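tool=predict chain=A
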Amino acid sequence: MNDVISDSAEAAAEALRSSAESLEEASSKIESTQFPSGEQAKEQWQEIVDKVSAFLAELPEYLSGFFGEYKQPIVTVGLIVAAIISVKLTLAVLGALNDIPLLSPLLELIGLGYSAWFVYRYLWKASSRQELANDFNALKEQVLGNNPFK
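tool=predict ok
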């Protein structure tokens, strides 16, 4: 039992000695560290300010060059983000409207009524189907122009 106590006492003493040595080394390193004088600190500060101001002076040229080079991908990513936001906003509005009591069934009835009117007006008779086809072709010409694929 005494051997165990003496071994642990020796280990503790050795740990204390190594801690004291490392503490002495750290304090000597701190004492040997030289901090810059006031004039050196001003020079270092001025160097940093000069670098930052040079970077900020070149920033507009850099950004315009970057945007000029990558204009198409930037616009594409912007449009995709705008489309995603629009879809989420539309779904949120429709979800809010759907939560209003009796509004959802009313809108469904309006949709069914409009569908029935459209079938009766444009699809029931051959002459009205021809009129719808002519209207569609006229709209297609307005949007795409005459002979768009030649």
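The chain has two domains: 44-99, 102-150. The chain has a mean pLDDT of 85.
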